[in-house]
Amino acid sequence: MTSNKRVLTWMLSIVLVLSVILSACSSNNNAGNSKETKGSEASPSAPATESDSQPVTEKHDPVTLKFISWKDSYNDLYKLFNEKYPWITIEQIPVNSQPIMEIIATLEAAGTPADVTEIDQDLIAFDQSGLVEDLTPYIEKDLIFQGATFPKGFFDTMTYNNKKLAVPMVDVPMWILVNKDLLTKNGLDMPANDWTYDDFRNIAKQLTHPDAGEYGLTTQAEFQMRLLSTKAIADGHAANLQYMNEDLTQSVMASPDVINDVKWLKEFVTKDGSLLSNAAATAQGDVTRDFINGKTGFAIGGDWVLPNLKKNANFEWDVLPFPKGKVSQPGYTIYGPLSLLAGSKHKEEAFLWLSFQFTKEAQEWKIDQGANASVVDSDLTAYYEKTPMWQGKNIAAVQLAKENAVIQPGVTIPGWGEYNWNNIMNDIIFGDRDINEIIPLTEAWNKKTLELRATLK
After folding, report:
1. Mean of pLDDT over the chain
2. Which residues form the signal peptide (predicted)?
């Protein structure tokens, strides 16, 4: 019995020692698993905490995203994205004047589907064809989107049937370009940022000297495309750009007030002489068609004109916001839609490219290119004063244009491609088309868009 007791005691001692060792090992393993779990659950954009002496990096398989885009100037943006998500590379698929739907179909047929795309036509058509994802569930769980503040109406023009079909790849602002040398030559000061449409017209007349080949306005369709419908909002004649009503279901282009706005701009050609018709501009060798020639006082431009102006203009130029009307001073901006494709094999990674657009580093990069910030953020507003793009220019005007910007509608309006507001306005302002044709054209389109809306699922 004594021998058995000794054996039992010895065995119990061994068990006790083993249990202590196992307990210690278990404790160490739990500590390691806790660190890995925290690393894997954290957002990819969440920084490691200072208490993590050896932060665990989540491992990912390399992913290449195919991005259909017109632009060949995003390489630096791709690098910023890759710094944030090192396992994801962006491969741009150039458009080269080919319809984007055809590009999507070609890549699908080859078994190498695209992941994200810029949009070149009605966004509804992409949705009805089942080509784009509803971004709502992605946005609702994304920390970047949930932590950002967006301008009023940010999703409105890209939402249809409660589905968010796109986000802005870029927010393209518009300003009035000003030839300051012509102002000085005519004894005029740079207008204030709260200038009015009367100021705009009066200064344009004072800058016009046909004998010298100098005119107040550049002969460009942008004046009717951008300024005319913005003035309609500024004077209370329309709720949205392109003469659309509040809920974007009908055009008010045929209303008496808007027709009077059209007559107002037409008088720059027929009465003031500060804007040349297409025929007159052609007869003078098309010199007045391009602001950079230095022969016109005002033009309308966006971020796309800035590189050429900064490099090649031989006169002093600046920018002003669109003028103030009777009730407000709206600006004009275009959202370039960016969508996640339903055929993508990497949807989660593809959405990271979408959400990355609204990080501070991406937004600052876009401001450096002359675009608007798409996020409401005091640091980004202040960044306009730091970017080399606007040094020496009217930065307050750029900030005001951003704050007051109204978003161009269209991509989620049924039958938008058949709404002939642009061609008829060009023909009236710069040609001899009868202004009264606006009325039947508008009535026909208003009927058509309601009919189309009723058929969409």
Report:
1. 88
2. 1-31
